[in-house]
Design a protein that fits this description.
Pfam families: p450. Belongs to the cytochrome P450 family. Keywords: Heme, Iron, Metal-binding, Monooxygenase, Oxidoreductase. By secondary structure, the protein is an alpha+beta fold. The chain has a single domain, classed as Cytochrome P450 (Cytochrome p450, Orthogonal Bundle). The protein has 17 helices and 10 strands. Helix 9 crosses helix 10, helix 10 runs antiparallel to helix 11 and helix 10 crosses helix 13. The radius of gyration is 21 Å and the shape is globular.
Amino acid sequence: MTAPRQDPLRDPRFFTDPYPTYDRLRESCPVRRIPTGSGGHHSYLITGHAEAREAFTDPRLSKDTARFFADRPSNRDLHPAVSRNMLASDPPAHTRHRRVAAPLFTTGRVRALRPFITRVVEDLTATWHPGKEIDLVAELAVPLPVTVVCELLGVPEPDRRPLAAWSHDLFDATDTARIDVASHRIGDYLTRLLTTPHTDSGSDALPSFLHACDQGGLDQDEAVSLAALLLVAGHETTTHFLGNAVLALLRHPEALDRLRRDPDLIPGALDELLRYDSPVSVATFRHSTEDLRVGGVDIPSGFPVLIAPGAANRDPAAFPDPDRLDLDRDAGGHLSFGHGIHRCPGAPLARAEAEIALRTLLTRFPHTRLAVPADSLTWRRTRLTRGLAALPLVLG
């Protein structure tokens, strides 16, 4: 098995449509060594569904980035709150963080949030009317999850817009300096938020979060890192989930018409929409701590391992005819939220936000259409997430 000569995940065509690349790599071998970045570095990319599920639960694949880079020189300057969060740790540290995060997203907690989510969607769409041209990303897909997660953390309303902008910069794969600056702005802001008394906020969200962190044994730096993760991961992926889902439906009129005629089918359609165009294309960093074998391929110790849910969700061995959006498909085995102990705890909240937003769009504006040709849309240039820079629509 020979590695490609160039990083296939940096090809401009990959950002527009990663699935031909994923198909080619998977057909050759579902676990491939590929060049990543510059300087002759290599990683192992996992594109098969069965292999991805196996890798997600293998304890020999560590998420402790500090451990990996301890003896490797780096010119990066990420804020510790961003570089050392729950997603960049293994048990027992990961277990302590997750024990605090999980109660924020229980079924009961999300059910209680649904009226608030509905009000946010209604406020964001209050000025919409048939014939109006909107950018779904800027006017709904970004502000909705930002508003909800900021409400959970007690972030004052005037601070929410800059936080969303910094989070956007954090996923800019083309400019590492910009990423580092954004990480410090987020980390510094959240440090001030969590350490400055707010006696007149009128909300108990922040005190409740701080109390949960204290009860869970998290120190101040760990509380800041957890808040940063909830903020960034809690809105970026949901933004792409909603944008990708709307575009997929607009490009599949029969599926769109079914949901327009019966909006109660929307909750059951979410798994297939997540599978079809996953908002997480490549999962966050892992590295091998010892020699292991995945999918019949030997992975030596000390290598980065990239698990690609976007590729696994299109594996024909798991999902027949995977390039077709099929609302009748049992897509519950998709890996868009991950798998194992690192599965996204915020999945119930993301699903609720997407369901409420889609229901509003399809019931109030059932004849909405793309304002531009689909092939002219611009996609974010990042291999980690897959999402649109903008989604211009004409409401109808």
